[in-house]
Amino acid sequence: MTRLAQTEGLTDIQREILSTVRDFVDKEILPVATELEHRDEYPSQIVEGLKELGVFGLMIPEDYGGLGESLLTYALTVEEIARGWMSVSGIINTHFIVAYMLKQHGTQEQKDYFLPKMAAGEIRGAFSMSEPALGSDVSAISSKGVRDGDDYVLNGQKMWLTNGGSSTLVAVLCRTDEGHPEGTAPHKSMTTFLVEKEAGFGEVRPGLTIPGKIDKMGYKGVDTTELIMDGLRIPADRVLGGTTGRGFYHMMDGVEVGRVNVAARGCGVAQRAFELGVSYAQQRHTFGKPIAQHQAIQFKLAEMATKVEAAHAMMVNAARKKDSGQRNDLEAGMAKYLASEYCKEVVEDAFRIHGGYGFSKEYEIERLYREAPMLLIGEGTAEIQKMIIGRRLLEEYRIQG
User: Fold this and answer.
1) What contacts 272, CB < 8 A, 6 or more positions away?
2) SS3 label, residue 289
3) pLDDT tens-place string over residues 132-161
4) Angle at Cα 123 formed by Cα 118 and Cα 129, nearest 5°?
5) Phi, psi (degrees; rounded to nearest 5) at 383
6) Which residues are catalytic, by number?
7) What is the pTM for the complete model shown?
8) DSSP calls for 196-242
9) Which residues of 254-276 are buried (b: 16+ CB within 10 A; e: fewer)?
10) Residue 68 φ/ψ region, left for φ over 0, alpha for ψ in the -120 to 50 degree band, beta for the rest
11) Burial code of 343-357, b = ≥16 C-beta within 10 A, e = fewer?
């Protein structure tokens, strides 16, 4: 049988990378993922293995020690990793977004300093927009950076940092009013700061505290944290791109590719749920035959497989559009929206196929059932995606005259 979610037109190098990653997932991630997840244990050995494979530098240019691959290659790699354990793909995603922002918008000095170390996995990235008092309304951030000589002094509280504890570089979005007169649109007075820190929890550098891990329903193993800045001094040369007031655009560019990543994660989790469902359906017997031979179960499997294929196709299309240099916010929004919603539905159908055993922590589907909801809100809720999609459609189909 041809496996679901195949991608046409890949190069030999892309196929080799994906084959290597899939083999790693099957041998090194799937056998331990559920046990580590139940213990909420950071997957240190898995991360070291991915560093050796070069995954942390997958999209970083070869001039900086990376593999110089496309967003499509990266997204398909993430799809494979999420099939094994979604939390691991989250560790990669935040690192990748910061590396992408540096590659696209950093000064030459910033690229030369950070990218080689990020490609090797020596520096690990996280990025921070959200705050406790706001969700999707990025323009309402209150964290602030004020110029003081050759430094900026940062104050404020950030929320929902993936890799908050394990990272050593955080791209932090703050308001900077310097040079922006009263009445300036909020998104034009934001700046991204490159904040270096020690890995761990507590005070990780003077003025910067990572309080500890947030206890979550799913998406365990990876550390999700707050970040508190209290008089944090950052040199002016750590302003991303060297110019204030561009932070909103930097972050939105990073989130756009992050949405392709979340779509890829949804595809990977859905694929795994389908694999578990179709396998269990052939082993479980009721009324004298495998439940896979009951029409009701076949209908579920058909719907699940179709959703896996559709989500994968939209994710691939969004990645290829970005790789071509074209605007892809419409395609990325559609892919993220569809893949996350379909992932939830496919996981729930696999859960139903398992019956009572799906409720048991002995079965892998229980873990997937708790992981899928995070994709519905990560990198923008379904409602935010619909707003983006709707606005872009009205741009494309505006009536003239």
Assistant:
1) 82, 83, 84, 364, 368
2) strand
3) 987 677 778 999 999 999 999 999 999 999
4) 90
5) -65, -40
6) 379
7) 0.93
8) E--SSSEEEETTEEE--BPP-SSS-SS-EEEEEEEEEEEEGGGBGGG
9) bbbbbbbbbbbbbbbbbbbbbbb
10) left
11) bbebbbbbbebbeee
CA distance 367 to 39: 12
What is the model's pLDDT at position 10? 95
Alpha-carbon gap, residue 69 to 103, rounded angstroms:
13
Q: Is 20 helix (H, G, I), strand (E, B) or coil?
A: helix
Torsion of CA 298, 304, 309, 311, to 10 degrees: 170
| Under 8 Å between Cβ of 228 and 208 | yes
State the average pLDDT for the chain.
93
**In whole angstroms, what is the distance from residue 21 CA to residue 259 CA?**
21
Whole-angstrom CA distances from 347 to 22, 164, 322 are 20, 28, 28
Q: How far apart are CA 197 and CA 16, in angstroms?
A: 36
Q: Compute how many other C-beta atoms are within 10 angstroms of the C-beta atom of residue 316.
A: 24
> Which residues of the chain carry a pLDDT beneath 70?
1-2, 135, 179-184, 401
Q: Give the β-pairing of 125-128 and 169-175.
A: parallel
| 289-290 vs 285-286, strand pairing mode | antiparallel
What's the gap between Cα 292 and its chain centre? Answer: 34
- What is the helix, strand, coil percentage profile of the chain, to 5? 60, 15, 25
Position 134 scores a pLDDT of: 77
Residue 205 CA to residue 14 CA, distance in Å, equals: 40
d(CA 171, CA 251): 9
**CA triple 272-7-276, angle to 5 deg:** 10
pLDDT for res 46:
96
Cα separation, 178 vs 149, in Å, equals 13
What is the reported pLDDT for 1?
A: 40
